[in-house]
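Structure (tokenized):
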């Protein structure tokens, strides 16, 4: 009972007071892969992340050794690491997150398994134009949050003291990762309601290289925003599927019309090039 009250108090503090939290290094022994190290953030509001072979098998549906993958809204890097394990050190996995609090932990995670992975992280948001944005959260400890052009945001009342930078992904790839672009097989997006705008900003990349696209459908977005997210992806030549979890045996349902985007409250979709 005492532990419950201590944890409850720590969570209350994390919601109301902005402070930095340390991380700890955990190890996971995965069959056929070996030891994987991962930095878990000790923010009381964040559940411990577990590197799972089942989650890795999910990404093996879309990736192979030597591939190039991009994680937009990577947070501390759980899925970045899982994708990078599949790509191997012969491939490349890029991670993007504008939140400096999670980026500190992400920066540690990209260094932890150099014999098995090749990861690079950028502390920026992906946007159409290179400009600066407010970053808001419902939690003072900034466990997550979202972008806004104004200081008023649906993401919460807490705002980073400095704005975050947005960059155009297509330009960045051409300038810094041109050799990897032809190997691009997967882009995962999780930006707390901003996914639609990110997809628009990378439409040229999607049309030219046709990577699998994974995107979050944010529960607080309006129906018309969810419809537009569907229509933007569909217009790029993709078929769209709901999936229940990032596991190899997840339930998968094709989303054929925009109204299907309202069947679930908060969920993820993946999109693959539509067969002609």
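Design, position by position:
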């Amino acid at each position: 009972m005492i532990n419950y009250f201590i944890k409850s108090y720590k969570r209350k503090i994390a919601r109301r007071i902005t402070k930095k939290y340390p991380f700890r290094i955990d190890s996971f022994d995965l069959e056929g892969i070996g030891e994987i190290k991962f930095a878990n953030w000790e923010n009381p509001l964040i559940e411990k992340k577990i590197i799972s072979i089942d989650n890795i098998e999910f990404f093996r549906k879309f990736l192979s050794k030597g591939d190039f993958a991009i994680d937009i809204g990577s947070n501390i890097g759980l899925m970045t690491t899982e994708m990078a394990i599949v790509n191997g050190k012969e491939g490349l996995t890029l991670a993007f997150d504008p939140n400096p609090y999670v980026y500190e932990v992400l920066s540690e995670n990209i260094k932890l398994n150099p014999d098995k992975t090749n990861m690079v992280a950028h502390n920026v948001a992906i946007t159409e134009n290179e400009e600066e944005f407010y970053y808001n959260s419902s939690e003072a400890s900034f466990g997550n949050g979202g972008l806004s052009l104004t200081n008023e945001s649906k993401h919460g009342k807490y705002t980073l003291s400095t704005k975050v930078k947005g960059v155009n992904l297509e330009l960045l790839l051409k300038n810094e990762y041109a050799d990897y672009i032809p190997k691009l097989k997967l882009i995962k997006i999780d930006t707390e309601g901003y996914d639609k705008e990110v997809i628009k900003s990378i439409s040229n990349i999607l049309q030219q290289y046709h990577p699998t696209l994974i995107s979050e459908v944010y529960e607080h977005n309006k129906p018309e925003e969810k419809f537009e997210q569907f229509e933007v992806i569909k217009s790029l030549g993709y078929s769209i599927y709901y999936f229940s979890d990032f596991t190899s045996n997840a339930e998968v349902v094709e989303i054929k019309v925009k109204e299907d985007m309202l069947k679930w409250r908060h969920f993820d979709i993946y999109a693959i090039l539509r067969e002609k």
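Reviewer-requested clarification: Residues 166 and 203 are 17 Å apart (CA to CA). The two ends are 60 Å apart (CA to CA).
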